[in-house]
Amino acid sequence: MSPSEEHHLQDDLEAMADGGRALSPARREALQQHIDSCQACQAALHDTQAALAALNSEDLQPSEGFDAALYAKLDAIDAEQPSSFWANFRHWLTPPRLYALGAVAAVTLVVIAASQSGGLSEPETSAPLAQAELLDLVQDQQMYESLELLRDLDMLEDLEVIEALDLEEG
Prior knowledge:
Number of domains: 3
Number of helices: 8
Order of helices and strands: HHHHHHHH
Distance between the termini: 97 Å
Largest sheet: none
Low-confidence stretches: 1-6
Helix content: over 70%
Radius of gyration: 41 Å
Mean pLDDT: 78
Shape: elongated
């Protein structure tokens, strides 16, 4: 049977092998007339019926190495396909993580709503704390200015060394 003769029934071949129940009566009759007159289609229908019978058999069992071979092929397919950001993101989004994310979002919204409505007022003892924080900021600023002066001194020393080398050469 040549490839051109093999499947001129195409999709209807499997439907006919299954008894033609999925086809309209007119289509089933037309196909049956064709199959009766075409030896290639008769052979293809017979092969398809045999394959369906084997698949529907309760004696059908995979070989011992089937699982290992299947997983090896799946791993090879996974290795060929680069992992995209969205694929990793979907893999990360599992129900427990989504529940935790929802809980964090809910707590955040409650805190924001309460702070805007005045529900979370600062205690009366916050004035000394604010003064201490302000003092820390002033001290940090003074330290930063000192660091800037030290950097400037380092740069001046470097310039003096370069100037001395220029004088020696010239």
